[in-house]
Amino acid sequence: QDVLQVGEELPSDPYYCQLEAESCRIFTEQLGRFTLVGESLSMAAAKRLKLLLFAPVCCTTLEYSIRVYCMDDTQDVLKEVMQVERQLGGRLIDEPQVLLFKDSYHNLRLSIHDMPLAHWRSKLLAGYQEIPFYHIWSGSQRSLHCTFTLERISLSTCELACRLCVWQVEGEGQSFSIDFNIAKDSRPLDSEFLCSDSSAPALAGPSAFQIPYLIRQKICSSLDAPCPRGVDWRLLAQRLQLDR
């Protein structure tokens, strides 16, 4: 059920939504599950995505597969992909990359270039792979990915250097360099990326409030009453840039 429309809240509503540049906070009188739904106002709008590259931890064959995930930039989706890759025997081969995906109705294309042809070749018949626009924009498919299967000429070949290109049709693209040794794994642990969330940790129990109770009471009583000079909650919200 619809419980709130941002910007049209009423004081009597049991919910409040604080929408900021990089986060959204929902205040509610009771716990529950909520979904934030919105739509872009123009084709200039972009959705922030994360690109993750995975490859086998151990490879004893001539074929070597690189999986490129295109997913929403949230910690829960990242954890899901990590769990899937652990079951597949995969591991991150580069730091997650940010991709801004525009609301232009154009698909996302991915391709691999600049491989040392004397040692590697691509088994992909087409020049690129493509992910449909609506599969990405809707966010309903959480682990979208493309697989690039490469073949090394000899088992002694362990160095792989190439370039991954990602772009929307008729749009600007991004390229990422890939350079690593498939036999000697010196990449960072996957757990480092799971702990890279920049949001503040949630506090619970006695440490949830750092200000003593009596001082909190005094702050509330001094800010609750509207003041002609504006020295109340309104000014505090304005200084915190939370006065929407």
Automatic annotation (TrEMBL):
Transmembrane portions of the chain: none
Q: Name one GO cellular component term.
A: membrane
Pfam families according to UniProt: UPA
Q: Which InterPro entries match?
A: DEATH-like_dom_sf (IPR011029), UNC5A-D (IPR037936), UPA (IPR033772)
The family database entries (SUPFAM superfamilies) matched by this protein are listed as: DEATH domain
Report domain UPA positions. 45-183
List UniProt keywords, sorted A-Z: Receptor
GO-annotated molecular function: netrin receptor activity
Write out the GO biological process terms.
Answer: anterior/posterior axon guidance
Q: What is this protein called?
A: Netrin receptor UNC5A
Q: What is the organism field in this record?
A: Acipenser ruthenus
